Hints:
The chain has helices at residues 9-16, 23-27, 176-179; strands at 44-51, 56-61, 67-72, 77-82, 88-94, 98-103, 108-113, 117-123, 128-133, 138-143, 156-164, 188-199, 204-209, 215-220, 225-230, 240-246, 251-256, 262-267, 272-277, 282-288, 293-299, 302-307, 312-317, 323-328, 333-338, 344-349, 354-359, 365-370, 375-383, 386-393, 398-404. The protein is mainly β. The chain is globular and about 70 Å long.
Amino acid sequence: MLLPRIVPRARAAMFLAGALALSCNAVKKEPAVVVPVYPEKLAITKAESLRTGIGAKSVEMSPDGSRVYSMNLEECSVYEYNRASRVIQRKLIFVMTPGKGWDYDKKVPINSYQEKPVEGHFSHNGRYLWVSLHNADGVAVWDLLGGDTAVEGKPFKTAWLHERIPPKPADVSAPPAAKKKAAPEPEFTNKKMKLLLIKTGATPKVIWSSPNGKYLFVSNWHSSTVSVIDISAPTPDGWNVVKTLRTGSVPRGMTASADSKFLYIAQMGGNFLSVVDLDTVEKVREITVGPAPRHILISNGYLYASICNEAKLIKVELPSGRIVQWARTMSSPRTIAASPDGTVIFVTCYNDNTVQAFRADTLALLATRESPGRPVGITVWQGGGVYEAWICNHTNFVMNVFTYTPPPAGSGTPPRQ
């Protein structure tokens, strides 16, 4: 059966009407930063454009590197790609119910739908994909092995799972004229599912977990809180919110130390990172980093952060919290991602429609590549001597896949200190 049309006119109209204003711009609108053009040191050997859902907001790669997932805000959907073939294998389409959204420019509530995916995160060795739903005050849980995750007596969300049917082998006996016809649209099976919804604070955004698998964290934009969920049980019936952390500002990005001792929270409504001791699950300190830190990650013992309002990528020494290096980026840096070997940091720059790459050790600029359509989410795979960056663009329904050749040792332009 052919996959039914999944984007009602009302949904597309809402998207085109301007419901896509992002929170970073709402904090402070900055003019585009003029960055000197440096010789490219990280060459793109291949650039591909794939179709993705309306209003893609983030992209995540499965822990084994075989699949890529895009969270599509305005389409109320999640797409699963086979990373090697670039083919969409499955689409999870939420059944929409009325809800209240938020106009980030006018700072007023708007009529919307509850089931709008923002960010994703994997747990339990990649079996479960957690998805934050912007207007549902909660996170939904998708069992990637295909079963329902709903728990009796707890909230849930309904979704349709569309799974691609492998195409039939080509008919070698068909006449040449028939072989030249356009390939038929892919066919999908349809299955209705019930997904557990764990209630959090208002407007959940980033999801992260402690490496030891004990806790999962959700940053709640409009509640100025982080929900702490105990996920130590092997199945959804044992997962529960055990604490709500007050952050003192508007939280977004999060990451945890490799030893599961500390959680770091980027306070995008302020200029600092909150540090939470995971033994006591209490905030123990703050690290000042600059206005509107949006996304953070830890690689090779250092914390990297995109500073949205100052168009910077910074590198923070841990545990001291001292900023040891910074580099200028293009305007409105959003998501950052490290190459699996930890040598390159990639940055999506929303307002300038570019993706940049920096050396992790020196923050030297390695490459700037155009990615039209407001690039926002990024994830990186590495293998066969190349880096593969998957970039979702928010306004043109395109997922770009850029294949880079690693830079030679010592390359790159020195950063500004």
